[in-house]
């Protein structure tokens, strides 16, 4: 199943996903470490941050991969793993597990970011 999932992204998507792994010198944190923390301020700037979070995850392109043939439990397990360890641990995984884990993480986080952006906007408008 990992090989099938790892083969889903095209070359550009693979480059974007692999680009998540290096630690950003200026931040001392990796992009996945930063992306797994959602902005939750219920303010105008907070809504902007939530939308920006969604846009950044959307640019990775994992949502464009057809994941319908991959068991949901497998995607959840890979995404949960990527969300619970440092980026270095994901980088140390052998292929195809590394790419499969990155695809699952990016797809799950994009969905979460979209839901949370809508939630923040809704709370801002109704609050």
Mind explaining what this structure looks like?
The chain has 127 residues and is mainly α. 64% of the residues lie in helices and 3% in strands. It is built from seven helices and two strands. The chain has helices at residues 2-6, 11-18, 31-35, 44-58, 72-84, 87-91, 97-126; strands spanning 23-24, 29-30. Strands 1-2 form a two-stranded antiparallel ribbon. Helix 4 (44-58) runs antiparallel to helix 7 (97-126) and helix 5 (72-84) crosses helix 7. It starts with a helix and ends with a helix.
Helix fraction by DSSP (H/I, runs of at least 4): 55-70%
- What structural class should be given to the helix and strand makeup? mainly alpha
Order of helices and strands: HHEEHHHHH
Give the C-alpha Rg: 15 Å
Q: Helical region count? A: 7
What would you call the shape? globular
For the termini, the CA-CA separation is 45 Å
Number of strands: 2
Please report which band the strand proportion falls in: under 5%, 5-15%, 15-25%, 25-35%, 35-45% or over 45%.
under 5%
Strands of the widest sheet, in order across it, are 1-2
What is the averaged pLDDT score? 85
**Unreliable stretches covering 5 or more consecutive residues:** none
**What is the makeup of the main sheet?**
2 strands, antiparallel
